[in-house]
Amino acid sequence: MAPATLVAPTTTVAPATLVAPTTTTTVAPVASPVFGLSSSSESKVQNVAIVGYTITSTGGVIASYAISPVAPTGTLFDTSTGLLSGSPTTVQGATVYTITATNATGTATRTFTLTVTALPCADGGACVADNIGPGGGTVYYVASSNFTSAGSACGSTCRYLETAPIGWIAASTQAAQTNCVNAGSSSVEPKCVWSGNTSAAIGSMGTRIGTGYANTSAMITQSSTAGKAGTVARAFQGGGKTDWFLPSKDELNALCKWATNDTVNTICNNSGSGGYLPITKGEFANTPHYWSSTELDAGFAWYQNFNSGNQGSWMKGTSGYLVRPVRAF
Fold it and tell me: Which residues of 39-56 are buried (b: 16+ CB within 10 A; e: fewer)?
């Protein structure tokens, strides 16, 4: 029997694995937003650009801004800068807007109060009777809907009539304008001949609201009209406007009703008022026969007595009747 052979055990050593050291980086948190507004409130007329505010940030970098409630119509809120700009178009009372700044850490808020007031009548806003109009006169007629005044700047979108003030004849007229026979002054109405042409009709007999401008234009195109009622009325340039005119029969009646505060009668100061109403507005004359631009025929034109409200026609060549320009807008 052969002797046993002893075999030594085999040991396998695995190669060493190198492990790279671990580095831990700590990122500092973003500071919370902190900011201020240069102004906390503003009041502006509608359709006029706001001044707004500037923002000063003293905290962490701000990622975005928001506003609540929604920015007013006509303005723009920039979510990247937080600024409010533009021209608000709608009237509103004092409205508090909250401006919120946000970043990864948190939020911060500030408030801005904006008040938007109505555009004045004289600047194109809505008007009521007795307001000062764009021509510097006083609003005396407010229509319930638009009317047309052919030739006036407002065209088919007219809504109001304004009357020139007492003293208009001395205030603003075209250079070298020939005045009426009785010229008037800063406190006295001029007395004018309606037309120097009493043999031909002007061909424009409009009576209603909106026809005075066309009537006046027809008067002026006749011969012998220098220093006459229509020409002198058109020459007035109150407020820098050049579309003043002698009122039509109905426009003059509306003026009489406003001057006497007559809210009862169709014809100014006529039956139904319980007696004649005194003239309280417009400083109209105490012997108030005023010419309209409405003619009856070649020789006669309509007038109105503001004391009695009487509407009648009289000879165009008469120089004793008064003139007060109006305009539509």
Answer: eeeeebebeeebebbebe
- The single-letter code of the amino acid at 2 is A
Q: From residue 146, how far is each of 12, 112, 142, 326 by CA, in Å?
A: 107, 39, 10, 17
How far, in Å, CA of 269 to CA of 257, rounded?
7
Each residue's pLDDT tens digit, 176-214 = 567 888 988 999 999 999 998 888 999 878 999 999 999
Q: Show the CA angle centred on residue 124, arms to residues 121 and 126, nearest 5°.
A: 50
Q: Write down the pLDDT at residue 177.
A: 67
- What residue spans define the domains of the chain? 35-117, 122-328
Backbone dihedral angles phi then psi of residue 56, each to the nearest 5 degrees: -115, 120
What HEC string does the chain produce?
Answer: CCCCCCCCCCCCCCCCCCCCCCCCCCCCCCCCCCEEECCCEEEEECCCCCCCCCEEECCCCCCEEEEECCCCCCEEECCCCCCEEECCCCCEEEEEEEEEEECCCCEEEEEEEEEEECCCHHHCCCCCCCCECCCCCEEEEEEEEEECCCCCCCCCCEEEEEECCCCHHHHCECCCCCCCCECCCCCCCCEECCCCCCCCCCCCCCCCCCCHHHHHHHHHHCCCCCCCHHHHHHHECHHHCCCCECCCHHHHHHHHHHHCCCCCCCCCCCCCCCCCCCCCCCCCCCCCEEEEEEECCCCEEEEEECCCCCEEEEECCCCCEECCCEEEC
Region 35-117: CATH code: 2.60.40.10
Task: For Cα atoms 65, 67, 73, give the angle at the middle one, nearest 5 degrees.
Answer: 130
> Could you tell me which of 218, 222, 251 has the C-alpha nearest to residue 325?
251
Dihedral of CA atoms 98, 99, 101, 106 in degrees, nearest 10, equals -10
Whole-prediction pTM: 0.78
